[in-house]
Specification:
Elements lengths: L8 H22 L9 E2 H8 L3 H13 L3 E4 L2 E4 L1 H7 L8 H11 L4 H7 L3 H6 L8 H11 L4 H9 L10 E5 L5 H9 L4 E6 L5 H9 L6 E5 L11 E7 L9 H11 E10 L11 H6 L1 H6 L7 H10 L2 E3 L15 E5 L2
Parallel strand pairs: 4-5, 4-7, 5-6, 7-8
Antiparallel strand pairs: 1-3, 2-3, 8-10, 9-10
Helix pairs in contact: 2-3, 5-8, 8-11, 9-10, 12-15
Length: about 325
């Protein structure tokens, strides 16, 4: 009998990752992490929650086995990361965001869509309004943005921007508006505009009001693909929007170039999709469900770079950042005028 030359370990590992992900979402749904700020026995959690003590103990053991909890002398507690991101009392709680994002990008219907094809209406309109609740997404990403993306942006911006410069900024398609909000907090002389579609703009408006920043940040409602976006900006933040510009990519990059002052900057965050649509895998898989449904929304990195070059943009060199935020850093561009 001949034995196979390769091991099925890869597939068994994927199955294990799937099971661990199921445990994560079960823990979020059951809210068990809210009980585990300090060492706590399973029987106490069962008493407080009403859950079955026997099965809760087995479940907590599994969460500890995959590294979401610590166990000591029959007591459980959150790991530091779990306490920070999965306990609802934390200002950085991401449980609801993770659940929503999983629902939005889930692949439960992949088999049916592969067999039957996309929705003709979605395929024709290519906007995503039928698939996504953009307002809820903006609200939930308000916290997620502050877990690394804002920090990398501010650290990179500090390489180009004077701390007290009276900058005028534009957060284009800003979603929660958190990039602009944290920027004006970091740079006390800065002010500007958050531009969002009418169905989403109430979200950044609420966050601006919560931060008492109405005198420094205004909300502009409209379709930035077709509507005027203003001018004389010293900095434009374009986080994720060029990937979805579709047929308007060249027009949008030209519009941004015209809206900047001669010494202004563009801060760009994109999905960096390869020409063969094979990488990065997080983007390819993450947007697969929407693409199968009929959307065609991811621009390749080379298409984005070509549009930027055509509009006169030139990429700036950014010094490496410390720690994990380096991986979340976008790119700075300037434009010759």
């Amino acid at each position: 009998m001949e034995y196979p030359a390769h091991s099925p370990r890869k597939f068994l590992g994927m199955l294990q990752q799937y099971r661990e992900t199921q445990l994560l979402f079960a823990g979020i749904s059951l809210k068990v992490f809210d009980f585990l700020t300090q060492d706590t026995p399973a029987e106490k959690i069962a008493s407080l929650s009403g859950y079955d003590e026997r099965n809760l103990t087995l479940f907590l053991n599994s969460l500890a086995a995959i590294g979401l909890l610590e166990k000591n002398n029959h007591q459980f507690r959150n790991t530091p990361e779990t306490e920070l991101f999965l306990n609802q009392s934390s200002p950085y709680y991401l449980g609801e965001y993770l659940t929503f994002w999983n629902q939005m990008t889930g692949l439960d219907q992949v088999e049916e869509l592969v067999r039957l094809g996309p929705d003709p209406a979605i395929l024709k309109q290519n906007q995503g309004k039928e698939l996504f609740d953009f307002s809820k997404l903006a609200r939930l990403t308000g916290v997620e943005v502050r877990t690394g993306r804002v920090q990398s942006f501010l650290c990179a911006a500090a390489q180009f921007v004077e701390p007290t410069a009276p900058l005028r900024i534009l957060d284009l398609g800003g979603g929660s508006g958190m990039m602009a909000i944290e920027f004006v907090r970091q740079f006390p002389s800065a002010s500007g505009v958050i531009f969002e579609q009418p169905g989403v703009a109430d979200v950044p408006e609420e966050f601006v009001a919560e931060g008492h920043l109405e005198h420094r940040l205004s909300i502009l409602r409209g379709d930035f693909m077709t509507d005027p976006i203003g001018d004389n900006y010293d900095l434009i933040i374009a986080s994720g929007i060029l990937d979805f510009a579709s047929a308007n990519l060249n027009e949008l990059t030209a519009k941004m170039a015209q809206a900047l002052t001669p010494s202004g900057y563009l801060y760009l965050v994109s999905h960096r999709v390869s020409d063969d649509y094979l990488s990065p895998k997080e983007s390819i898989v993450g947007w697969l469900s929407s693409h199968l449904a009929g959307l065609d929304i991811l621009q390749t990195r080379s298409n984005i770079e070509l549009a930027l070059t055509s509009a006169g943009f030139r990429k700036m060199e950014i010094k490496p950042l410390d720690g994990a935020i380096q991986n979340l850093m976008g790119e700075f561009y300037t434009v010759a005028k």
